Structures are given as C-alpha cells and as structure tokens.
Amino acid sequence: MEAASEANSPRPATQSRPVRHVVITGAAGALGRAVASRFAGEGARLALIDRDLQHLQSVFAHPEPDHGGHLLHAADVTSDAAMAPVAAAILDAFGSVDVLVHVAGGFEMGEATHTLSRESWMRMMDLNAWSFIAVAGHFIPAMMFQRSGKVIAVSARAASAGAATMGAYIASKSALQRLVESLSHEVREAGINVNSIAPSILDTPANRASMPSADHTHWVSTGTVARVAAFLASDGAQAMHGQHVVLDGLS
C-alpha cells in the first residue's frame, strides 16, 4: 500500500488563540502609538487612554475592524478618581484585561537639587510614579481574580543614577522602578508578571526638535521599545518578575 501523500494526510486540529485585551496609557504619544500598533498587529483588542480625547480620536481615526475597534478614553492618569470610571468601563466592555502597558509619564529639566521647587518635585512624582499606582490599582484586582496578567511600565535608563538638574525626574523614575519591584513581589503568586522597560533617549519627533544637533542614530527607536513590550507580554517572559529591561541604544 502506498503511503498517503502529505496533502491527504490528516492534520492535527489547530486552535486559535483567544483575542487578548490590552490597556495602554499615554497612547496618543509617539511611543504609545508604536506600542498600540505592535499589539494591534498581533490581533489584540486595545483600550487606549490619553488625557485629550480629541487628540486620541485623531491619532486612532482608523480602528482595527476585525476586533471591534479600539476603546478610546480620556483620563488624567495621575488621578485615582478620574481613572476609576474609565477602568470600570474598560473592564465592563472587555470582561478581563490581559496586559497593561503604562506608557504615560513626563520629562522636564529642573532646577539644581538644592533649589528644587516642591511644584517641580510633585509634577514629576505624579506623572512618573503616582500615575502607575492610580492606573494599576484599578486593573490588578481583575488580574488577580483571573490568576493571570502582564503589567509593563516604561521607566528610564536614567533611573539608575543621579544627574545635574534632573533630580526630580530621575527620582520619580527610580520611584517607579521600586513600585514595579514591590508590586511584582505582591502579585507574582497570583500569576501576574510586573516588569519595566528602561530606555535611554527615545527617537521621537519631540526629542529631535529639542536636540537638533544630536546624533539620533544612537537613540532607541519607539519600535524597539514596542517589541520589548510585546515580549514582556508574551509567554516567553513568564519567568520574569520585577525586572527592568535597559535599552541603551548607542548613547
């Protein structure tokens, strides 16, 4: 008897992977857009958060039709009160959240440390550290209930050491990293991975405009950060907890 040809051989049944639900803050910015594009390309359904709904709508004017489009929400990520109804609406629409990517944050050069104003200090701490708590606090309980989830924050390579006139910014990103580590210890037994990405200078239009004479080929592309975020959200990163993936570029 002749062996059956490959074309006629029975094939094992394949199961399509369920659509993942991904929440991205700071979604309308250059990095947020790259992260959103990456996850959309993987077939995820997205909930996109930024402070200006009109801008968010203009950036994401053409949602992915195969997955019912994106959910677009305006919210101040530094406000627990503002995040509460937004998170509730997302969880109501999705039923569950598999991945949270906290891109939102801010940068500013400040005063010398000995003349640092409380306003500058609080602005950086709110944007880069407290926002992580205000956002994650509304999605972690649902992840703990489902016993799975990935939380990814965008930190900065600068968090590792001080630098002149950057005290508030560096302190706030360092605080974010300690929060990532602490949350990781608290939820890893519930099947939740919490990690961060720490890039050096990002190659964005804003950074090119503010540093026109710099060699941007030494910077880190937003696409690179997005690929790392996708990896941290994958099964391949299942054993990673409380880690900060440093992206140096050539800077």
Automatic annotation (TrEMBL):
Its EC number is 1.1.1.-. Keywords: Oxidoreductase. It holds the Pfam family adh_short. It comes from the Bacteria. GO terms for molecular function: oxidoreductase activity. Belongs to the short-chain dehydrogenases/reductases (SDR) family. This is Sorbitol dehydrogenase. The lineage of its organism: Bacteria, Pseudomonadati, Pseudomonadota, Betaproteobacteria, Burkholderiales.
